[in-house]
Amino acid sequence: MKQQKICVIGLGYIGLPTSAMFATHGCEVVGVDINGKVVEALSKGKIIIEEPYLDIMVQAAVRSGHLKAKRKPETADVFIISVPTPITKDKKADMSYVVKATEMIVPYLRKGNLVILESTSPTGTVEELVVPILEKSGLKIGEELYVGHSPERVLPGKILWELVNNNRIVGGINRISAEKIRDLYKIFVNGEIYLTNATTAEMCKMMENTFRDVNIALANELAKICEKTGINVWEVIELCNKHPRVNIHQPGPGVGGHCLAVDPWFIIEKNPELAKIIELSRKTNDNMPYYVLDKIDEILKDIKGNKKVTILGMTYKPNIDDVRESPILKLIDLIDNREDLEINVYDPHVGVHKYQEKDLMVAAKDSDLLILAVNHDVFRTLPLSEIAKVMRNRNFFDTRNFMDKEELEHLGFKYILLGEKAI
Ligand code: SAJ
Q1: What is the pLDDT of residues 380-406, one digit of tens each?
Q2: Structure pTM?
Q3: What is the C-alpha separation between 156 and 14, in angstroms, rounded?
Q4: Catalytic status, residue 259
Q5: CA 417 / ligand 1 centre spacing (Å)
Q6: Which end of the chain is more exposed for a tag (fewer CB within 10 A), N or C?
Q7: How far apart are CA 204 and CA 192, in angstroms?
Q8: Can you name the residues that pair with 110 across neighbouring β-strands?
Q9: Which residue's CA is the nearest one to ligand 1's atom 29?
Q10: CA dist., res. 26 & res. 22, Å (int)
């Protein structure tokens, strides 16, 4: 295939790695972002997000001259749209970034170009939202301008490896569009590439994350049931998963991130009468911080007066710095709104934050309860005996089945595990 010039709109968690990947495979890539900070950093070969090895790859791509950052698009062979599709307060997909990005490229479109939407989008986005805007170019869609959806599926923390090795779905508005998109991704994808139509690809992407969200809701419901039954949910799950066709997910204090906590709502939005299990699951997971707060009240019920709670971890999952849609932020909010509860939070992965206490011992001082909210690896080596000395009451609530119960009990802590039994 001849060397392609690719214009990527949106240099976030997906657009930037994708740009760097194409650039290091010999393509000429123009990365476009409306955020001046991103463009400025990238021009110097730097990045402003945390993702293993991405900095090295971006630096190599910029140094080789194959990756350039711009505020506006340029004419190219291929346009990839990878802008956010956030959720509004009333749980609807905010498609304004996709609309703006699509409008932005129209003046640069030429006969034979390929336009790919990568952003996770509700069904019908390509056909009903993107194509009508692209038609303003005057080009015949599907014949002079090829269009499709190829959703990203990479896991934050493993993005570069998964970009190359994951299987990929390509949905074209017609067969030739899908084939052209497949040929483009073949430049760096080692996984299988499956062709379908655009709307099917949109549904696949949302359903993959919904599958996970629903299964986590099932695990969270089971955790509550096990507590009531007086058994340990983690043991139940471990034993159930010995069955060859069972894979129960892990319970916890809620589901966060910009994917699982968001994408199911896009299906619900389009199918409110039908997506009942999906909606209940979303609500079950969103309710977990409230459940954790109830547990906190139960644990502290015998302590008179004001109580202090110390939370360990605030990101949406372990070993990352990302707090987007983190259920721990919701929990922090709930505790902060209570007059009788004082809160301190410690998360070494997160920089400056309203609730962040940089010093662990200060965060734990005079505390009545430590809550393990995120299972960061660094929490494996907490100075527990030192912490025990400065606490007012030694209670430890483990929401992730992460701590060593015996060690904590040996240090005089009362150990409470989410999903074990009512206190
Ligand atoms: N979680 C649980 N229990 C579990 C698994 C996860 O409570 O058993 C929670 C985590 O604590 C976290 C949330 O779910 O709060 C999401 O974490 P995750 O690791 O499941 O997923 P993300 O959001 O980081 O990435 C997902 C991935 N999707 C799937 O695995 C189906 C990724 O492949 C997608 O590319 C990404 O969403 C995306 O961008 O859509």
Answers
A1: 999 999 999 999 999 999 999 999 999
A2: 0.95
A3: 9
A4: yes
A5: 22
A6: N
A7: 15
A8: none
A9: 209
A10: 7
Quick: pLDDT tens for 295-322: 999 999 999 999 999 999 999 999 988 8
SS3 (DSSP) at 384: helix
Give CA–CA dist 193/185, Å, rounded. Answer: 8
In Å, what is the CA distance from 86 to each residue of 206, 333, 339? Answer: 13, 21, 33
| Alpha helix positions (H), 78-197 | 96-105, 131-134, 159-165, 175-185
CB 117 within 8 Å of CB 106:
no
Q: Which two tokens stand for residue 200?
A: 């099917």
For 220, the token pair is: 């969270």
The candidate with the shortest Cα–Cα distance to 388, out of 402, 403, 375, is 403
CB-CB neighbours of 337 under 10 Å: 10
Marked catalytic residue, from 259, 295, 317, 330: 259
Instruction: Supply 266's token pair.
Output: 């896009």
Smallest CA-to-CA distance from 399 within 336, 274, 312, 315 is with 312
Ligand 1 atom closest to 249 (CA): 8
Three-state DSSP state, 401: coil
Instruction: Write the pLDDT tens digit of every residue in 164-195.
Output: 999 999 999 999 999 999 999 999 999 999 99
Residue 214 tokens, joined: 């629903």
